[in-house]
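writing this on my phone so excuse typos. first protein, seq and then structure
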Amino acid sequence: MYLVESWIINFDAQMVASILLHVISVLVLFYILSKLLFNPVREVLKKRKDGIAKEYDFIKDEKQKATELEKEYKDKLANINKEADKILEEARKKAQLKEREIIKNADEEAARLMARANKEIEREKDKVKDEIKVEMIEVAKILASKFVASSIDKKVSDKLLEETLESIGEETWLN
């Protein structure tokens, strides 16, 4: 049995004290390591986890803002065509008003020119009429002097009248 007893652990007081001392040492070492090493590591990991959570929230907020901006820009792009059409329509209206004003001014100027030309034509007509009257008076004088100078013969006077009329021309009498 001695051989068998050597194989079995003998629990004597020294061994139990040694085991208890080792267990207490391990627990004290574990406590010290937890205070010095595990808790700071846990705090670093917690800070890292909180930092990652904050970054995730920040990214989520930024993504939401980007989505809102994208929607806003899409709306603006859609409204740009409407605004451009509105601006073009206003420009067309202004151009049409300007065109009407220019046409009105041109018509007024044309009317003034026409009135001036008509007055000038009337003056020229009056001048020509006065000249014709003067010529008729001259013709009448010539006719009277020839009529008096010749015998008062009907044939001669008709002949003189025709000659005078031919010398003046038909155009003078028609105007």
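second protein below, same order as before
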Amino acid sequence: MSSRPTIIINRLDAERLQRLIDAASDKDLAVAESLEAELERGEVVDPEQIPADVVSMNSQVQFTDLGRSRQLVRTLVYPRSLAESADGLSVMAPIGAALLGLRVGDVIDWPLPDGSETRLRIDAILWQPEREGQFHR
């Protein structure tokens, strides 16, 4: 992996994600380990300190899969919320884990389960709970 920009994570998200990682099943273990490494290297801040251009949990994100030249819009959610979100992307999916904590303009190289790598760019944060004053969502 060649590109890992600095990431910022909401403290409450980090605590919830750690519980999710600790309870991960064998099939989710690889993503859980990658996500845990991201939590360890990220700057963890209080929800009120999350900049408006950072992908936090429940943010609706416009991003480009640079390998496929494909732009997508997804909402980063916890696995339990997938059914409630028409455009949901689980944080326990490889692409979901990659998006967490990135800023608009950031590009990240991220491993996929098949051993290949993807390259993603954050184009816009269309909606973010912290920006809307929803600090405990």
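Residues 8-132 form a domain with the Chitinase A; domain 3 fold (CATH 3.10.50.30). thats all i got for now
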